[in-house]
Amino acid sequence: MKTLPIVDGRYIGEEGINLEFKSCLRGIPTSVWVTYSSFSNTFGGRIILGIKDGSNEIEGVKKPSMRVQELWNTLNNPEVVNLNILGPDDIWTFEVGEKTLIVMDVPRAERYLRPIYHRKLETGTFKRNGEGDYVCKMPEIASMIRDQSDVSYDTTVLDDTSFDDIDLDTLHMFRNEMATVYPNHLWNKESDQLFAEMIGAIGRKGSDKPLTVAGLLMFGKEYMIYRFIPDFKLDYREYRSDIGDWIFRLVTGDGMWVGNLYNYFTKVMSRLMSDVNNPYDIGSNLKRIENTDVHKAIRESVLNAVIHTDYLGKDGITIVKRPNEIEISNSGLFRIPLEVAERGGESDPRNKVLAKMFSMIGYVERAGVGVNLIMRTWKNHFNTIPGIEEDTKKGLVRISLKFTKKSNEISDVSQSILDLINNNPGIPIVDMAARIGMSTSTISNHIKSLRIAGIIERVGGTRGRWKINL
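and the corresponding structure tokens:
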């Protein structure tokens, strides 16, 4: 049975990233479709019709059956919204005394369905930011449209490029690493140009053999990368403390190094791993193997950024290292819901060829386990969860890995969540936030911690229920 947190004629809880109230005394407001668009294009959310905005007072909806039918009619009218993504149970009514509320549970649209827009693509595409809806600019719309395709952008063949645009020193570093990991691989004996073609760095266009986007990004000369990707940016900064200026920086565009992806990855990983306080293994060749769980989690975090970045976005990749934290951000939002990525088992890389290249040097874990590995490792070693944020306004993903002391105590907030689940296993996060008096993002972070610790699990997906394993 679906419930709402209502006491003495008022909704207990505030509007936010996943919750919106609409007054419906004069009929269904047009703003419903603006919020429908923003929820669909962001994280999903709940629209409740019949609550007075600002006071949370229950006003109710007149003729609710007629209004529900009107909602369905509008959802299926392509002149108002381009696509209906709601299921039959996503619109429902709730009685509060003699008054009736209408609830719309809007899921996050699959990437191949976005953008969801109201009337016109250019002016009616919205996203959610905090507790408000904002109209998307064309670069945001273009990013959503790019993500619709199952064809990986990094397979794109670039005219007016050739093998000469590859930095050979970078390619040779990659080949040496591959030969170390896979010494008997048949491709190790091939020429540089044929090898580059085999790994997807070179494509074919008639008799020509131009570079692919993956080949240019991974091994290309920096000035050529800028020719095709003007906003290309890779940035790494180290700080001695939480305040003050950086003490070391590696950034594209300064002309001090060969600014391609593989060079960036190797240089950054060396600095990130240099003082990680964990044991390591020694291989048969007496080479240090940074293969502890913590090392793997850091590496996976960087690799996730590399293979999921939207390189046509303006922010590229930025990595910041402080004594007690590593922060990694990259252009491009998750292509699958974050909770799905956290569970593991499902992968949807934005750059499939880059992912393949890194797998050929042993640097990509099994498909779909990266985020789950990071979450589990940080929980096991530091009893905390990484902060993973999708910044919808800037169109980037940010992950924070904090090195903290381990504690086994369950917080008061987590205990409150367990109490609510125990009373109502089907309770949604929006209702938990309302009852506890915290934001949905805060509640979501505590739920992540409980799930990683194995204390709770989700049964039946987004429309299922919670299960406590204590």
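(Above: one complete record from the training split.) The first helix runs from residue 31 to 41.
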